Structures are given as C-alpha cells and as structure tokens.
Amino acid sequence: MAQLQWKEEFSVGDAVFDADHQNLISLINRLSDANSSEDDIQWVLQQLEIYVQVHFSREEMAMKEADYPSLGEHKLEHDNFPTWLGNLKSTFGSEPDSAFHLTETIAEFLNEWLTKHILHTDMQYKNKI
Questions:
Q1: Which pTM was predicted?
Q2: Cβ of 78: how many Cβ atoms within 10 Å?
Q3: Confidence of residue 41 (pLDDT cuts 50, 70, 90)
Q4: 37: Cβ–Cβ under 8 A, 6 or more apart, which residues?
Q5: Which of 20, 23, 30, 96 has its CA 20 to 30 A from that of 9?
C-alpha cells in the first residue's frame, strides 16, 4: 500500500485532533512498510490502544461540551474500533504467519477508518466544536 500523506483538506479545524489524526496516518504508514516486523506490529497495536483511549475520549468530551447533536451516533462509530482492536490483539500471534497477514488487514482497516470516519464523520463537527 502506498504511503499516506497528510493534506490540509484532512483538517477538522482543531490542532489537537488534527495532530491525533496525523499520528494515525503515521501508524498506517508504519504498517504499510514492506519490512514491518512482528515487533512493529506489536508497537502499532499498543499505540492504537493509546489512540483509542486518548483521542476518542478527548473528541467525545469536546462534542459533549459543545452540545454536538450527533454525539451519540459518533460515539457508536468509536465504540466499534476498540472491539475490532481487541479481536485483532487476540488473534495476533496465534499462528506462525499471523503477523504477515495481520499487517495488511490492520493497514486496510485503518485506511478505511481514515477515509470513512475521519474524512467523513469527523468533518461533520468541523467548526462546530
């Protein structure tokens, strides 16, 4: 998969959230590297856990404080991510070739998350929170 580059049109209008999203792009790019090792994958999974805890709670708090009307729907999308991540972590290392297969699966999921959630759903709160 080609390396992703941050573009100004990805901005949701908040420097902290944009930095979080840029971090996610970096994680996707790290996995897209053909030389990703099992250690790289482990590190990315750990970083994704942090991302879920920090970014989602920060974003949801800002939405709540702004009385954002679609907070419930937005939170439902967020809730799917840790479920996916938990399933992935339980699968990781279960078979000798799992690291190779999971690298592609993770990168594809995160790329889809970027294009569908961040570039569509998150854009709905731009200039509103």
A1: 0.82
A2: 16
A3: confident
A4: 99
A5: 30
